[in-house]
């Protein structure tokens, strides 16, 4: 099956004023759509055509002859995952099993939030900050460009996009403000809980 552009799980204006409808129009409709289109073009006629994104990512990670396939497929996956990580009226301290796991791994939600924001703010250039599951452990990691935890054998639980196209229309160069607003007002903890093994 071809890689497809998923519908956003909320209206384009539903995350405003934290993320504007204009940002989502460009980010989802142009940037994410371009990764999907390019991935399908690059996959056409290869042995990977028709495979799911996770399989393609794992099979092309680190393969310099297939870097285009990796970059576009991984970005299609990362974006599809990112949209699910947010919801209108989300954010704040987590509830459910993830709350206990975060407290155990980081000492408190507040400590986790600071480390997560720092990871996003210090990712040089474009990339992502993640909460991942490594076996039974929870960890924060950051990845440059299209890189993704799947390429490192880790299970993503939560991500925030720190490419400039994710926030520049709304926050200009104030990436830390975007990261704080993401955690305080957008995180979909139900989705994070659903990802826990």
Automatic annotation (TrEMBL):
Annotated EC: 1.15.1.1
Residue ranges constituting the Manganese/iron superoxide dismutase N-terminal domain according to the UniProt record: 4-87
Described purpose of this protein according to its UniProt entry: Destroys radicals which are normally produced within the cells and which are toxic to biological systems.
Domain Manganese/iron superoxide dismutase C-terminal: 94-194
Name the UniProt record assigns to this protein: Superoxide dismutase
Pfam families: Sod_Fe_C (PF02777), Sod_Fe_N (PF00081)
Keywords: Iron, Metal-binding, Oxidoreductase
Superkingdom to which the source organism belongs: Bacteria
Family named by the database record: Belongs to the iron/manganese superoxide dismutase family.
Lineage summary: Bacteria, Pseudomonadati, Thermodesulfobacteriota, Desulfovibrionia, Desulfovibrionales
Catalyses which reaction(s): 2 superoxide + 2 H(+) = H2O2 + O2
Transmembrane regions: none
């Amino acid at each position: 099956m071809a890689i497809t552009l998923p519908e956003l799980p909320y209206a384009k204006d539903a995350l405003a004023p934290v993320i504007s409808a204009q940002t989502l129009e460009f980010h989802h409709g142009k940037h994410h759509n371009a990764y999907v289109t390019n991935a399908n073009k690059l996959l056409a006629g290869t042995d990977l055509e028709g495979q799911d994104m996770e399989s393609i990512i794992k099979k092309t990670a680190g393969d310099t002859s297939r870097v285009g396939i990796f970059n576009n497929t991984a970005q299609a996956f990362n974006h599809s995952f990112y949209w699910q990580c947010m919801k209108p009226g989300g954010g704040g301290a987590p509830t459910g099993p993830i709350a206990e796991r975060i407290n155990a791994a980081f000492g408190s939600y507040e400590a986790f939030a600071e480390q997560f924001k720092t990871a996003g703010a210090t990712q040089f250039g474009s990339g992502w900050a993640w909460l991942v599951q490594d076996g039974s452990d929870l960890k924060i990691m950051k990845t440059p460009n299209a890189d993704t935890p799947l390429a490192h054998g880790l299970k993503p639980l939560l991500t925030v996009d720190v490419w400039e196209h994710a926030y520049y229309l709304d926050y200009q160069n104030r990436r830390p403000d975007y990261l704080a607003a993401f955690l305080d007002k957008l995180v979909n903890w139900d989705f994070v809980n659903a990802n826990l093994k």
